[in-house]
Design a protein that fits this description.
It contains 9 helices and 13 strands. By secondary structure, it is α/β, with parallel strands linked by helices. The strands form 4 sheets. The chain has a 7-stranded parallel sheet with strand order 3-2-1-4-5-6-11, with helices on both faces. A two-stranded parallel ribbon has the order 7-10. Strand 1, helix 1 and strand 2 form a beta-alpha-beta unit. Helix 3 packs parallel to helix 4 and helix 7 packs across helix 9.
Length: about 325
């Protein structure tokens, strides 16, 4: 059955892949974005589809529409972008959640919140289950994002309990793939661009800190399964790849796949940077039809490198 689906932040890296997938499944998609970090370039190939609508709008202001489902993705998600305007980041997370929950309540739509593994902060438990409350600095440099997302989760839970809004919460772990912003400051895009341009590859700290990298297609599959799951399961649920890699391992893999001659340089670790991040996905497997990631790091990196390589061939230059 064709559904009308609203995606806030739909012109972003993840949002654009979700738009594409939902259209492919025969739905009508309304993509809302203010282009703070999203880009029309990410969805321009969808504009000819009569069931796709692109609207410039900022979720800190209310929006009125009739839809069946809402995916609330709007929020800058890389440290470079969310620290650029920290107050705007908090407003987007909190006021955006309030506005979209209010809409879902009025029109009786199911709504999914794209939360983040950042709610766990610099975790003292490894890997991180959904029951872990986190180790977050509420006044640190990353708090505008971490606490904004934690507050949004609280709003979703309370709208569910108090107003019977049909809510879903997923916690997204490090995700990469085509359409990432080359200058978003995330480790995968940083390493790939530095390697392709023959620049020195910047490692913060000693490079032993670890992350778990999930390819975007696996995330989109998890999001859609969560949206389709029974009303009794509201989450939160971790969506990530449990295979853990150190920053040094990632850098070496990127150098190998790009045939780059780039050398590694080491710089001090930024404040509040987590030393470990790895999802416990046992709840996702149990509740989301045995969901787990299919795309492993080498395959996903190869596709992402191909995308960035094409950007450079098309004349992309640093701003």
């Amino acid at each position: 059955m064709k559904k009308r689906v609203l995606i806030t932040g739909g012109a972003g890296f993840i949002g654009s892949h979700l738009c594409e997938r939902l259209l492919k499944e025969g739905n009508e998609v309304i993509c809302l974005d203010n282009y703070f970090t999203g880009s029309k370039d990410n969805v321009v190939h969808l504009l000819d589809n009569p069931y796709f609508e692109l609207i410039r709008h900022d979720v800190t202001h209310p929006y009125f529409i009739e839809v069946d489902e809402i995916y609330n993705l709007a929020c800058p998600a890389s440290p470079v972008h969310y620290q650029y305007n920290s107050i705007k980041t908090i407003k987007t997370s909190v006021m955006g959640a309030i506005n979209m929950l209010g809409l879902a309540k009025r029109i009786k739509a199911r709504i999914l919140q794209a939360s983040t593994s950042e709610v766990y902060g610099d975790p003292l438990i490894h890997p991180q289950p959904e029951s872990y409350w986190g180790n977050v600095n509420p006044i640190g440099i990353r708090s505008c994002y971490d606490e904004g997302k934690r507050c949004a989760e609280s709003l979703f839970v309370n709208y569910n309990e108090q107003n019977n809004v049909d809510t879903k919460i997923i916690r997204i772990f490090n995700t990469y793939g085509p359409r990432m912003n080359p200058e978003d400051g995330r480790v995968v895009s940083n390493f790939i661009m530095q390697a392709l341009l023959g620049e020195e590859i910047t490692i913060f700290g000693n490079g032993e800190q670890t992350r778990s990298f999930q390819y975007v297609d696996d995330l989109v599959e998890g999001m859609i399964r969560m949206m389709k799951s029974g009303k009794e399961f509201a989450g939160p649920v971790n969506i990530g790849n449990p295979n853990e890699f150190s920053m040094l391992e990632l850098a070496q893999k990127v150098i190998e796949l790009t045939n780059s001659k780039s050398k590694l340089i080491f710089q001090p670790l930024p404040a509040d940077d987590p030393t470990q991040r790895q999802p416990d996905i046992s709840l996702a497997k149990k509740e989301l039809d045995n969901w787990e990631p299919n795309v492993q790091l080498k395959e996903g990196l190869s596709k992402t490198i191909e995308y960035f390589d094409q950007l450079l061939k098309n004349g992309w230059t640093r701003k």
